[in-house]
Structures are given as C-alpha cells and as structure tokens.
Write a structure and sequence with these properties.
This protein is an alpha/beta fold and 243 residues long. The chain is built from six helices and seven strands, in the order ααβαβαββαβαββ. The structure holds S-adenosylmethionine (SAM). The site of S-adenosylmethionine has 25 residues, from α3 and β2.
C-alpha cells in the first residue's frame, strides 16, 4: 500500500519489460538446473554456460532495482552537484516524470524557479502523471518554486536563452528517431542562457547529444557516474556549457 506521506519517484520503464526479464531469468536458471541433473559432461557444460548467462543478465537487473529503490536519490544529488548553484537560477527539467530533478533543483533555489516538462508516456515510467509529480513537490515543500508543463522536448514553447540550467535524466533515449533526439538537443541548447549549463544523464546516445551540443557551439564533457553514485554503471552524463 502507498504511504501517503512518502515521496514516490516512480519506477522507470514499462512493467512488461520487467516481467519479460524476470521470466527470462526463471527460464535460464530452470533450464540450467534441469541440465545439471544429467550425468553428461556436455549437458553439464551447457548448464554452466546458462548459469553464467543468467548471472550476467542478473547483474544489470539487480543494479537497476537498487537504482529504482533509492539509488536514484543519491544519483540526483550527484547530478545536481555538477552545477554551481546561486539560488536565483531558472531551471528546466526535461522529462521530469515524478519530478525527481525538478524538485531536487527547487530545493537548491531561493528566488529561482524550476520548471518540469513532460508528455507523460506510461511506457517510460509507471503511473506517470502530472498529479504524481505535484504530490512529490507538495511533500518536499517546494510547490511555490516549481511549475509543471505538458511540453514535448522536441518543440518547446520557451523563448531563446530563458534558462540558466537545463537538466534531464533518462528522457531523451525514449524519443525513437535520431532526428527527434537531435531536435530535442537543439531545443535544449536554444533555451539555455549564455554561460548556462546543461546536465543530461542517459543510458544511450550520449555521443549523439555531445555532438549536437558541440555543433551548437557549446563546450561539452562526458562523464561516467562512479561506482557509488547509486546508478547502474552504463549511465552516462553529458555536461555542456554555453559560451
Ligand atoms: C524514464 S522516465 C524518467 C523520469 C525522470 N526524469 C526521472 O529521472 O525519474 C522518462 C520521462 O521522459 C518523458 N518523455 C519521453 N519523451 C518525452 C518528450 N519527447 N518530451 C518530454 N518528455 C518526454 C516520459 O514521459 C517520462 O516521464
């Protein structure tokens, strides 16, 4: 049952994928367990290969479960620590979902404001709604410092040079076509002020994003999160600064 007083930053991805992965693990270990009972070297080697494969598949599943169960709060701190906060910034969180980065940023602000945009795709996050993001903002006491809008990252309504900081976590890879992801990166660069900073974290396409930002004249660095940042190791962080 949901605890009414506890924030819920959601489970990323679709339930179907989780069921598929767990089913794959059951089949792999079941088949391995069956084959190991035979008195045959070939079948026993095959069973060992299946066990090894099951463990290799299990490692990313476990690290993702750890991320969803609480690592994402540690990872949020890691991403936000890459910005030199003054408290007066105007911040954009692209694909805010349940408000993870928007709310984390709002807690760093005094006079500033954090805007979260999303199109609430259910296949990208379970129970993905405006209301769930707003509920978290209320629980974290930041409603006066945030605004949540239904805006597509590929075509934003904000004027050029509007934001001091643009953040995004696990959003852009969900845009299926490269042209769409390129458009979103160009939009992110467009709405950023001179001297503003972009922090994009994602599981895929980091080189693509870095290339677009560099093409727009920004200085770009790509980071690997550390072992203890609360995230699976295949995440990448793209930091870009507008000159
Ligand atoms: C995996 S969730 C991550 C949510 C949040 N950033 C976090 O870290 O918890 C990805 C989010 O990106 C949103 N999204 C996907 N495509 C988008 C687009 N074109 N424009 C805005 N948001 C988008 C989804 O609706 C979803 O809320």
């Amino acid at each position: 049952m949901k605890n009414e007083n506890k924030t819920d930053y959601g489970i990323d991805g679709s339930p179907i994928k989780y069921v598929e992965l767990i089913a794959a693990e059951i089949i792999i270990f079941g088949a391995g367990g069956y084959l190991i009972t035979f008195n045959s070297l070939t079948l026993n080697i095959l069973a060992s290969v299946l066990f090894l494969f099951g463990l290799l598949l299990g490692f990313p599943i476990m690290s993702f479960i750890i991320y969803v169960l609480g690592g994402k709060l540690r990872y949020r701190d890691r991403l936000l620590s890459m910005v030199n906060w003054k408290g007066s910034e105007t911040v954009l969180d692209v694909g805010t979902g349940h408000g993870l980065l928007m709310i984390g940023a709002a807690k760093k602000l005094d006079t500033g404001k954090a805007v979260g945009i999303d199109i609430w795709r259910q296949e990208d996050m379970m129970n993905n709604t405006y209301n769930n993001a707003m509920r978290n903002a209320e629980l974290e006491g930041v409603t006066k410092k945030i605004e949540i809008k239904n805006v597509d990252a590929q075509k934003m309504e904000f004027p050029d040079g509007y934001f001091d900081v643009v953040l995004s976590n696990l959003c852009l890879h969900n845009i299926p076509l490269k042209e769409g992801r390129d458009m979103a990166c160009r939009e992110i660069a467009r709405v950023l002020k001179p001297n503003g900073v972009i922090i994009i974290s994602d599981i895929l396409h980091d080189k693509e994003y870095a290339k677009i930002f560099a093409g727009e004249g920004l200085s770009v660095e790509v980071f690997n999160p550390g072992l203890f940042d609360g995230t699976p190791l295949w995440y990448k962080i793209v930091k870009a600064v507008k000159k």
